[in-house]
Design goal:
Helices cover 43% and strands 15% of the residues. By secondary structure, it is α/β, with parallel strands linked by helices. It has two domains: 246 residues, Spore Coat Polysaccharide Biosynthesis Protein SpsA, Chain A (Alpha-Beta Complex), CATH 3.90.550.10; 114 residues, no CATH class. Strands 1, 2, 3, 4, 5, 6, 7, 8 and 9 form a nine-stranded mixed sheet that branches. Helix 9 packs parallel to helix 11, helix 12 runs parallel beside helix 14 and helix 13 packs antiparallel against helix 14. The longest helix is centred in the C-terminal third of the chain and has 22 residues.
Length: 372
């Protein structure tokens, strides 16, 4: 394979980036918006978490920017949701009760298809927004002439209770080239959650919405694919304040599930698709650093899942996965990128060796996983 080759889809995707007109800076009243599409759409997937969902919706209703809609996709067919049931009085929030379980990924795509806003984002049914989330994102869209996507920093909090509100200073939006954004993300200089980015709805339809990377209805690792794909954009805006509050709790799937075959499958598929992106001309100069960071994340995250099984020898299951990832680099054979990828794989091996030989805080590794 010639490492400069790009698929027709990638070429078409590259031609269509950044084609939107700038947004207006005018705030519309609710009455003015009843007959028109809102500026933002927020899609919230939920499954049998009414108490946490209520907290999420309250944080959405409290937004200082009024021109939005929020759509709740209820995948728990046994108990339909309604505004009355949850005590929601905000007419901008509506509910979609599915007759059967769609699965998380299909639910996310259904919410995107039902949305009307110019910009769209997904939100989990257990996470919260700072009150100025939409206002700050809108301000950066106006300031930087309608970039395709905006990301914000986030903070972690624990437990199922409703946390105390925090005083958040308005975030400073900075525009980066996609290449610089990805470099900063991989280095840890900025934090972002891929599926919680705010994207032009046109862009999301162009890239095909949410695609699962394994034999599961969950979009495991899809958020990282969105962040890596952002590296192809001419402009990406990042807001340096934690405008998203990311909850960790006992009922969260990611914190309690260690399906190693699934993680192996999605890790290999993420690596395959990321290689196709990282070798494109916009990112080729940073290929060695980017592929090294990605491999390091994949190895570390898989080892974290191995450690969730307390049996002493379970951590050894990371070794076959490590060599499995090396096999995914074979598509680069015959190019200079192959040797760069092998160097990154060797560095990931050093990380794995350290993890296997060292006692460390599982909580600390979990937090580093969220940062990516």
């Amino acid at each position: 394979m010639n490492d400069s080759d790009a698929s027709p889809h990638q070429e078409n995707f590259a031609r269509k980036r950044d084609v939107m007109e700038p947004p207006t800076s005018i705030h519309h009243s609710d009455s003015e918006n009843r007959g028109s599409a809102p500026f933002f759409s927020i899609g919230i997937t939920t499954y049998n978490r009414p108490d946490l969902l209520k907290q999420t919706l309250d944080s959405i209703s409290a937004q200082t920017f009024a021109d939005f809609e929020a759509i709740v996709g209820n995948d728990y067919a046994e108990e339909p949701l309604s505004a009355e049931l949850l005590g929601i009085t905000d007419p901008r929030i509506r509910f979609e009760n599915y007759p059967e379980n769609l699965g998380e990924a299909e639910n996310m795509n259904a919410l995107l298809a039902r949305s009307r806003g110019r910009y769209f984002t997904w939100q989990n049914d257990d996470d919260l927004y700072a009150p100025t989330f939409l206002e700050d994102v809108h301000a950066t869209l106006v300031k930087f002439d309608a970039p395709t996507c905006v990301f914000t920093s986030y903070e972690l909090f624990e437990g199922a209770g409703c946390p105390e509100p925090t005083d958040v200073v308005a975030g400073t939006g900075t525009v980066f080239s996609g290449r610089e954004f990805l470099r900063r993300y991989f280095s840890g200089a900025l934090s972002a959650i891929g599926c919680a980015g705010v994207y032009s709805r046109e862009y999301l339809h162009l890239v095909g919405g949410i695609k699962v990377l394994g034999d599961s209805h969950r979009p495991l690792y899809t958020e990282y694919l969105y962040l890596i794909r952002a590296g192809l954009e001419a402009r990406v805006v990042h807001i340096d304040q934690p405008l998203i509050r990311y909850r960790t709790h006992e009922g969260s799937w990611g914190g309690t599930t260690a399906d190693l075959p699934l993680y192996s499958q999605v890790g290999g598929n993420l690596l395959n698709q990321s290689i196709d992106i990282l070798k494109m001309p916009e990112l080729r100069a940073d290929f060695r650093e980017n592929i090294s960071a990605l491999l390091n994340f994949l190895v570390s995250d898989f080892f974290l899942k191995c450690r969730m099984d307390c049996r002493p020898l379970c951590r050894l299951r990371a070794l076959p996965y490590f060599f499995f990832l090396k096999s995914k680099l074979n598509s680069l054979k015959g190019s200079t990128l192959y040797w760069q990828a092998l160097m990154g794989w060797a560095r990931a091996g050093m990380t794995l060796a350290w993890c296997m030989a060292t006692q460390f805080s599982l909580k600390s590794l979990l937090r580093s996983r969220c940062v990516g």
